[in-house]
User: What shape does this take?
Amino acid sequence: MIKDLKTIDEFHTAINEDKIVVIDFYAAWCGPCKVIAPKVHAFSEEFTNAEFYKVDVDEVSEVASEVGIRAMPTFMLFKAGQKIKEIVGANPAALKTAISSALA
Assistant: This one.
């Protein structure tokens, strides 16, 4: 399951979890975001030891600004408040590899 983060406080709470956190930064108008969305959903069901969230960069622009989002989709992996990986673009293979490596 993928949860929406609607505020900067929700974002900070999420990234400080003591497990792997995958955040999908997207925009409603972003074509590649829509293309990769079903894959991200599948990964959320496959990798049950990770928490999956999404952030609409237009609705929660302060989060996008804080982490320096420049393109969508961007995926960031966090553990205990530290960013451990960033993937820019709709690249499901790279995202799957990053999640697998983070959980290993």
